[in-house]
Design a protein that fits this description.
heterodimer, A: mainly alpha, two-stranded antiparallel sheet, 2 strands, about 0% strand, globular, B: mainly alpha, two-stranded antiparallel ribbon, 15 helices, 6 strands
Chain lengths: ~400, ~475
């Protein structure tokens, strides 16, 4: 029996979402890794600032990619989710702790002003950027090698401590550092920091070579630890592997020739990473857990899969325009980060309306009211109360 | 099936404690995610309409605090998604296709909220006032719809529907019935109102302290009045809603209701216990109002109320004393907050000004903590009251818990981490507010929030600030 077309379609969506998380979330983790390796607080100040500026806009949305990965997995393929979460309890817990620490470090880092505190929160942020991708990598390695049983009786330590799993963990870390360094080269260029362009170009090249070496190592390891996946990787998924290698080479070439074309460089780096994820998905087909749980046996009923299509469709309809708006506003420089409140503070202290910012008019609530009736009622109540109290 | 037998032997208490503490922490931040944008937008609306600088300043500062709280909430929410699988693989593996549906929709609203918090936070300067105001609207809508989606998943556990089970495996799912199960309208309305009360009373409490310290300017009065009004409108609705929900629970989950009200035996003329501790089947230190529970359930003293004797002991919720006292605490605080809102409303009605006597402000300063306590107590009632079931009358908690070892370790780690997160989410806004009060206004431009688009386009912000205020000492984007 073959899996239903709905199951295959959701599996494709799932692999695409994982690739998105690898590209966007991975770049954030990579930023943390470069932050960690940037050296002392004086020497590392400029690269750290650049990393900080480029991660700030996106780190939040990248959490949502991860949430989508989890939710898709548990809704569309519940038995696989339950098995993975049980057998790989330890690495998954550590990666979750890493995510919390990263958020804490990031949130506090921007408020902390004393150097000590900044160093501490910065270190928390950076270290957790290393921990999370590594352990997520071991999880993927454990799944690929078929070490996750359908009904695990508890933790399966051997699954994620196998050489393949550990290698995959390192591969994830290197890939994050690589994709992030490439993006940072372009960020530095956009912001006009030639020294940082060289700085991250060098690191992107190094990370690219290390990632390639680790990928080759994992690949050869797979031939013995997961022969079926290896066969498909060298068979049906070979074109994807070839594209990945070609894209990776292209990125290296562009970096060496200093041809920093924003779109092409970014796309090539993204393709190099995304095709590996897709190749993995294709190589594992038709198994969710090779070779004990097939896609056909592990899929949710059709209605749940259709619900996931609707969710994906809604995401494309609602979230994509939202992002488009965000980027449009940013490109037109309508979003300015730092807002000074001087004008308002002065005006508030003098209790004077500021010129040009709206005229006190007795106009009826109008369109706003229909959208937000409760709020308008409350506002009117407060307005009346305060205007009367002021008149006295 | 060997795995199931193994799972049965596993003790679910550490897993329950971890889930309870994670949820109990996250739910407070989730309240801000649901309701903070509305509070901020009302302030901005007043500011734009009246050209009121104090209101605009409040809105701008609130948006910064909102960004921090939403960011921490995003992290703790991600952890919860992990925990659904790490702690309850037996639930997700068997019922993931059903309970996952509402969760999937939540993802979209989570995304939308994240995007528009970014736009709202960074759009203050260059967007036109009304365009900026409208950019906040998606946060309000996504907050409410996100709450609807997540609470629908919890409602489904209390009132499972929309699936067909054959040989213990789900064979078909009706996503609409899963999402809109019998408990969804009650639980979601209760939670959204709770979110508005918690957020409103907590923010109002901050400014009540300021008013008590003698800062009676317009800034502080507005800062108190806006969130207090919103929470004050929610309070009576919440009390009414709570009454309706209690009757629904008596119908839908009679054993939970029996534990809430100490109904040991099914019968009529059931008394209403206020307070009291249950020891060996007898209630001590409590006051019983004769027949009142029957009246509350069916408006008639002869209404039959189902007691916990209707199910065998192993299907009754543990700790009835905890459930009953939590319920009483929630109801008591609900009425206290209602009285507080009514007092201010009465004063305003007859005097047309804000009541600022310490007799009112001291309890108001504590109203936020009280609202949080009530909400946590309410979650204790609904979650402990559902025990020993994880899916009511379908799946036992003991059959859902993970067989993986190490939950006690992760429980310890989670407790430590959430203590840190609590410090962050209280500490960061406190540091911000101290800075706002003490430092030169121009320093505020250096304020960075862990959120939103990059400050690349802001080099002239510093210049503008310095032009506006020549004595400005330092600043500029990226200045630390």
């Amino acid at each position: 029996m073959n899996p239903s077309p709905e199951a295959i379609a959701v599996a494709v969506i799932f692999v695409v979402v994982i690739a998105a998380y690898a590209l966007f979330g991975g770049a954030d983790f990579g930023g943390g890794i470069w932050d960690l390796l940037a050296g002392g607080s004086e020497r590392g100040a400029t690269p750290r600032d650049l990393i900080d500026e480029s991660i700030t806009p996106v780190w939040e949305a990248n959490h949502v990619w991860l949430v989508f990965v989890l939710v898709l997995l548990w809704t569309a393929f519940p038995p696989a989710f339950a098995a993975i979460m049980t057998a790989l309890f330890v690495p998954l817990s550590i990666s979750a702790l890493g995510i919390v620490l990263r958020g804490v470090g990031f949130a506090f880092r921007h408020t902390a002003r004393r150097l000590r505190m900044q160093q501490f929160t910065g270190a928390t942020f950076a270290a957790s950027s290393l921990i999370t991708p590594f352990f997520l990598g071991t999880v993927v390695g454990a799944v690929v090698t078929g070490q996750v049983p359908v009904h695990p009786a508890g933790n399966v330590l051997a699954a994620w401590t196998s050489p393949t799993a550990i290698l995959t963990g390192f591969l994830f870390v290197a890939a994050c550092a690589y994709i992030s360094a490439v993006y940072l080269v372009l960020e530095a260029r956009q912001r006009g920091h030639p020294d940082l362009v060289r700085y991250f170009s060098l690191r992107a090249t190094a990370a690219g070579l290390i990632t390639g070496a680790l990928a080759a190592g994992t690949f050869t390891e797979l031939s013995s630890s997961a022969p079926r996946v290896f066969d498909r990787l060298t068979g049906i998924a070979l074109p994807l592997v070839a594209i990945s290698i070609a894209a990776g080479m292209a990125v290296l070439g562009m970096l060496l020739l200093r041809w920093y074309h924003a779109l092409i460089l970014r796309a090539a780096a993204a393709i190099a990473v995304a095709t590996v994820v897709w190749g993995w998905g294709l190589a594992q087909y038709p198994y969710l857990l090779p070779t004990s749980l097939s896609l056909e046996a592990g899929s949710a009923p059709t209605a749940s899969l259709v619900a996931e299509f609707i969710v994906t469709g809604l995401a494309v309809l609602l979230v994509a325009p939202g992002f488009a708006l965000l980027y449009l506003l940013q490109q037109r420089h309508l979003l300015a980060a730092a807002e000074t409140d001087v004008d308002l503070r002065l005006a508030a202290e003098l209790e004077q309306p500021i010129p040009g910012r709206g005229v006190p008019a007795p106009a009826p609530a109008g369109t706003a009211a229909t959208a937000f009736v409760l709020a308008v009622l409350a506002v009117r109540a407060i307005r009346d109360a305060l205007s009367r109290s002021r008149r006295r | 099936m060997g795995a199931v037998a193994h799972v049965l032997a596993v003790n679910p208490v550490p897993a329950r404690s971890q889930m309870g503490s994670s949820l109990g922490f996250h739910i407070i931040l989730a309240c801000f995610g649901v309701a903070f944008a509305a509070v901020t937008m009302i302030a901005e609306w007043i500011g734009i309409k009246r050209g009121d600088a104090a209101a605009l300043l409040l809105a701008r500062r609130w948006s910064k605090v909102m960004a921090v709280l939403v960011a921490v909430g995003a992290v703790s929410g991600t952890v919860l998604s992990y925990e659904m699988g790490l702690l309850w693989p037996g639930l997700m593996g068997r019922f993931g296709e059903a309970i996952g549906v509402p969760f999937s929709f939540e993802g979209i609203f989570f995304f939308l909220e994240a995007i528009f918090v970014g736009v709202y936070l960074y759009g203050w300067r260059r967007l036109s006032p009304w365009a900026h105001w409208w950019s906040g609207m998606p946060i309000v809508v996504a907050g409410i719809l996100g709450a609807l989606s997540v609470v629908a998943a919890n409602s489904w556990m209390n009132s499972p529907a929309g699936y067909t089970l054959r040989h213990g495996k789900i064979t078909s799912v009706d996503p609409v019935s899963v999402f809109f199960n019998a408990a969804t309208p009650y639980e979601t309305a209760h939670m959204v109102l709770a979110a508005y009360m918690v957020t409103g009373f907590l923010i109002a409490g901050v400014y009540a302290v300021g008013l008590l310290r003698g800062r009676r300017d317009r800034y502080h009065r507005l800062g108190f009045a806006i969130p207090f009004t919103l929470a004050g409108i929610a309070a009576p609705l919440q009390v009414m809603m709570g009454d309706i929900i209690a009757r629904f629970v008596a119908q839908n989950q009679p054993v939970k209701f029996a534990a809430m009200e100490y109904v040991a035996r099914t019968g009529d003329n059931v008394p209403e216990w206020v307070g009291g501790i249950l020891i060996n089947g007898k209630v001590y230190l409590g006051a019983a109002i004769p027949s009142f529970d029957s009246i509350l359930v069916g408006f008639n003293p002869h209404t039959r109320v189902i007691g916990w004797d209707s199910v065998p002991p192993d299907q009754r919720p543990p700790l009835p004393t905890l459930i009953h006292l939590s319920f009483d605490l929630m109801v008591g605080i609900g009425f206290f907050l209602l009285a507080l809102a009514a007092w201010q409303g009465w004063w305003w009605w007859f005097h047309r000004r804000l009541l600022v006597t310490p007799w009112f402000l001291v309890p108001s300063a504590l109203s936020g903590v009280a609202a949080v306590t009530a909400m946590e107590a309410g979650w204790v009632v609904t979650e402990v009251g559902r025990q020993p079931w994880i899916v009511y009358r379908v799946l036992l908690v003991g059959n859902a818990v993970t067989s993986a070892g190490g939950v006690t370790v992760t429980l310890g780690a989670i407790l430590v981490l959430y203590a840190i997160l609590t410090v962050v989410s209280i500490g960061v806004p406190m540091i911000m507010s101290r800075r706002w009060r003490r430092e030169s206004p121009a320093d505020e431009e250096a304020e960075q929030v862990p959120y939103g688009p990059s400050p690349a386009s802001a080099p002239d912000a510093g210049a503008r600030a310095r032009a506006a205020l020549p004595r400005s000492s330092s600043g500029g984007p990226g200045a630390r």
